[in-house]
């Protein structure tokens, strides 16, 4: 049987919650790939910074003991010394670019955890390397696989819900994420880049990917003082606002509120809620009200969530007896493996270029289609940086006569260019 050989950089929370269970499931059932039949996925090597999580991980997933593990700043180079088809990059938000560029230049397909990269010039360099080396550059946006969000998209696509004009999204992460899980890399970071990006992409992909409406501005405010100093560069909560303009001049405005200082014993896995209002309807979704509420005596919500999101990731015992971990968090990764395997093995080498074009056109995960989302992240990061340096209330215009991203402040005439080409 043919094999898709992969490497994974980063062995943190997302590796444990999604990559490892996805790979475990693939051991029982190989990928079934169009034009290629069954393809095995082989995890060849993994890398992390300190290696501190490796002993516990390889105990929890004993099959990892057969996999080569590297640690240190240059773990990605060691990974790339193997013959890989695909590398998954699941390092902290600001550590995606360098290993991704090196992999693409070596002709290895890349699967990036969200947020893909934090600035448009990085995105441009990765897209160029992807084109030049015919290597896929893809991003994991698991919320697009959430059945509720797929249903929303279906209703929008079929024009049952018409002309979105207002949206409100919130995602609140428990304190232990900022205080312990991400403590090694939390300084200078904010929850909007980390999780707000899910909604930035959901909004762009669901409502505007094929629309004539354009992203026109980005605004952000935030609070500090719990995760870091009250005047420092690390943010507890962020309120991001972005505006789109339709060709007739009407606007659609979206507020995305994120935090990583929510109580650890809140009942949900994370607290998530969205509302989208249309000319002819409204969509409300609250993750805590998906229909399941479970109470177990003596089980605190810190360790046993009482309003779980089983759609994302759950251990399930199927009626036919098979036990597995499933959910959209895993499906999105499996689909990316499927696409890489299709490119490698889904037909004659002479038609590989056609397959590359076909896969690059998939706007849900291709890096080229991620540019507007990266633009919002770059704007947001700049607004927060200036705020931390004593200049609050920044506002970024998108595709302004003076540049693709241009930062301004109330009462100040001068504009600061952040990115020149059109976004
Ligand atoms: N799809 C989602 O919804 C979702 C959910 C969570 C996270 N994410 C994304 O996934 C990425 C990782 O998040 P996480 O929650 O897994 O973070 P995490 O728990 O903090 O783990 C980060 C991992 O990256 C490793 N690492 C750090 N710097 C590195 C470097 N320079 N070279 C190699 N490895 C390095 C760390 O090594 P050590 O083990 O040695 O510390 C650790 O294994 C982030 O971009 C995050 O936004 C996505």
Describe the overall structure.
- It is a single chain.
- With 423 residues, this protein is an alpha/beta fold.
- The N and C termini lie far apart (43 Å).
- It is globular and about 65 Å long.
- The protein has a nine-stranded mixed sheet with strand order 13-12-8-11-10-9-16-17-18. Strands 1, 2, 3, 4, 5, 6 and 7 form a seven-stranded mixed sheet that branches.
- It is 31% helix and 28% strand.
- Helix 1 crosses helix 9, helix 8 packs antiparallel against helix 11 and helix 9 runs antiparallel to helix 10.
- The protein has eleven helices and 18 strands.
- It has two domains: 182 residues, 3-Layer(aba) Sandwich (Rossmann fold); 162 residues, Dihydrodipicolinate Reductase, domain 2 (2-Layer Sandwich).
- The site of NADP nicotinamide-adenine-dinucleotide phosphate (NAP) has 29 residues, from helix 1 and strand 3.
Instruction: Estimate percent helicity.
Output: 25-40%
Pattern of helices and strands: EHEEHEHEHEHEHEHHEEEEEEEHHHEEE
Summed up, the domain count is 2
What fold name goes in the CATH topology slot of the largest domain?
Answer: Rossmann fold
Helix-and-strand structural type: alpha/beta
Number of helices: 11
**Beta-strand fraction estimate:** 25-35%
Return the CATH architecture of the largest domain: 3-Layer(aba) Sandwich
So what's the overall shape?
A: globular
Q: Profile the largest sheet.
A: 9 strands, mixed
Give start-end ranges of low-pLDDT stretches.
none
- How large, in whole angstroms, is the Cα Rg? 21 Å
Distance between the termini: 43 Å
Bound molecules: NADP nicotinamide-adenine-dinucleotide phosphate
Total number of beta strands: 18
CATH homolog superfamily of the largest domain: NAD(P)-binding Rossmann-like Domain
CATH top level of the largest domain is Alpha Beta
């Amino acid at each position: 049987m043919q094999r898709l050989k992969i490497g994974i950089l980063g062995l943190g929370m997302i590796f444990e919650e999604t990559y490892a269970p996805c790979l475990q499931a693939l051991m029982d059932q190989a990928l079934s790939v169009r034009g290629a039949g069954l393809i095995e996925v082989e995890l060849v090597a993994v890398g992390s910074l300190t290696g501190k999580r490796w002993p516990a991980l390889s105990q929890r997933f004993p099959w990892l003991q057969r996999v080569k593990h590297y640690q240190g700043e240059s773990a990605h180079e060691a990974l790339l010394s193997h013959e890989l088809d695909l590398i998954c990059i699941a390092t902290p938000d600001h550590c995606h670019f360098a290993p991704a560029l090196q992999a693409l230049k070596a002709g290895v397909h890349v699967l990036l955890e969200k947020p893909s990269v934090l600035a448009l010039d990085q995105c441009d360099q990765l897209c160029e390397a992807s084109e030049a080396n015919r290597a896929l550059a893809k991003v994991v946006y698991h919320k697009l696989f959430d059945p509720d969000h797929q249903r929303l998209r279906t209703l929008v696509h079929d024009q049952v819900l018409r002309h979105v004009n207002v949206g409100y999204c919130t995602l609140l992460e428990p304190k232990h994420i900022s205080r312990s899980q991400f403590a090694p890399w939390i300084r200078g970071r904010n929850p909007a880049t980390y999780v707000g990006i899910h909604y930035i992409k959901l909004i762009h992909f669901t409502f505007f990917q094929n629309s004539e409406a354009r992203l026109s501005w980005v605004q952000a405010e935030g609070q500090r003082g719990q995760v870091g100093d009250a005047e420092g560069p690390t943010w507890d909560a962020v309120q991001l606002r972005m505006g789109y303009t339709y060709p007739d001049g009407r606007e659609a405005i979206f507020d995305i509120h994120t935090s990583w200082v929510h109580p650890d014993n809140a009942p949900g896995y994370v607290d998530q809620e969205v509302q989208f209002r249309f000319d002819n309807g409204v969509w409300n979704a609250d993750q805590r009200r998906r229909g399941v509420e479970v109470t177990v005596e003596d089980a605190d919500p810190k360790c046993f969530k009482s309003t779980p999101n089983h759609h994302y990731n759950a251990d399930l015992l199927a009626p036919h007896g098979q036990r597995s971990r499933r959910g959209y968090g895993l499906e999105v990764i499996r689909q990316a493996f499927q696409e890489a395997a299709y490119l490698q093995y889904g037909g004659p080498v002479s038609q590989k270029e056609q397959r590359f074009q076909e896969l690059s056109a998939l706007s849900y995960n291709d890096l080229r289609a991620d540019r507007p989302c990266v633009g919002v992240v770059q704007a947001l990061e700049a607004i927060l940086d200036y705020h931390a340096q004593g200049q609050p209330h920044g506002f970024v215009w998108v595709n302004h006569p003076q540049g693709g991203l241009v930062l301004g402040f109330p009462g100040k005439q001068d504009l600061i260019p952040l990115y020149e080409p059109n976004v």
